[in-house]
Amino acid sequence: MKSTSDTTVICDGSGYKVQLGSAVNLQWQAMGCAEKHERAHIADLMEICPEGCTDKEKGTPHPTGDDPRGCPPFEDKGTYAQWRATTECHGYSVEEECLVEQFKSADAQGKVAIRNRLNKHVRRSLKYWKC
Ligand SMILES: [Zn+2]
User: Fold this and answer.
1) Total Cβ atoms within 10 A of residue 88
2) Domain boundaries, the chain
C-alpha cells in the first residue's frame, strides 16, 4: 500500500497525478526534477493504460502487478516487472538530465544538494534498474 510520504503516481479522481510525498523535503531544484521523474511515469502509464485511473477514488495508487486493473500489460506480474524496469529507467534518466541542467545555474548550496541527489540516489538507481 502506498503511503502519503511515497513519491509516486496516484489517481486524483479524474486521472493520474504526481504525489510528491517526501520529495517536498528536497532542495527545490532537486524536488522539481523528482516531479519530472514522476511525470515520465505518467506519460508511460498513459501510453499503456490510459484508463487506469478512470473512476478511481482520489488517492488510489496507480495500477501495478500486485493489483491488476484490466490494463493488459499488468495482468501478469512478469510483464509488469519488465514494464517497471523500463519506466524507472525513463524516470531516472529524465531526473538525471534535469539535475545536470539545474546544477549549472544553482548556487553553491544548491550544487551540493544536487550533487548529493545525483550520486546518492539517481545514479545508484540507474545502476539498480540496469539502465
Ligand atoms: Zn520512479
Assistant:
1) 20
2) 8-128
